[in-house]
Amino acid sequence: MLSPSETTTSATEKRNWTGLGPYLVLVAAGALFFAWPKGSADPAHDSTLSVLGDLGGQLRYQRRVRDSQALAESCKTWSCHCATVAIAHALDMDARAALTSLLGAALRMCPNEPRLASMRFEAAVRSGAKGTEPMGIALLAADSQDPYALYGVALGKFRAGSLSDAIVMGGHATRAGRGYPAWSLLGLSFYGQGNFQQAEVAFTEMLKLVPEDVPGLFHLALARHKQGHYLAAREGYLHVARRDPMHVETRYNLGVLAHSVGATDEARHHLAKLQKMPGAAPSVKRLEEFLATPNSPPSVGGALREVAGTQP
Known about the structure:
With 312 residues, the protein is mostly helical. It contains 17 helices and no strands.
């Protein structure tokens, strides 16, 4: 049975230094969106401004122009509202260094801001902190529809391998408005159960909110691949390859997919592309072996895992 590669790596991790040029330009441009009160000489303020500029640049690099503009509008000056908007985007992108800075600044300035406690809880779960479950229970006892608390609990269940509980809590998080991270988590949970049809539905909903998200596009293609929807999977993988030409697993899967339907020349084309990618040697070897022995499909390349910025 065909076993597409399921190990994913973030676009940022895979991009070489040459490819970082446009991103760095956008980060610098992002900093220009934000103003600061005249006469402020507080180094902490300067650090926070730098973090906001970096977030704006990342949003623009991900083609989330509307979110970038909303962040700029909310953060013309540093305020509690700006802090919560920025923290929300940092959570969505799993930008942990930014979260540490923003949460620290927000807790000093507005410790009683609504949702700040649940945002802090979600950040703790994302970081892998131990003993967070009681905090989640207390937050949901106070507000059963808190989207960040629901997502944090769902993520904890997912990481503990309790996929049924993750699906229940992830569903609540989507209905509470936690947005595309909740849909991503729901898709990953269904995928982990082997329910590829429901995983496809969840990733489709996620991509309605972030249409150009590379991990979401990859996971949608993978769910379709697992269902045997090869044409749709091929189109999805090609979309990923256009967005992130260095996405190793996408190129590997395209080679496997082409060979499985007898398109040998196309499979060789994808192998040649894969051979030019930094760090792709293990995938190159697996694909070469698969193309040489079509009756011995390759083993799955590892468990489907979370990808920074798009999912848990």
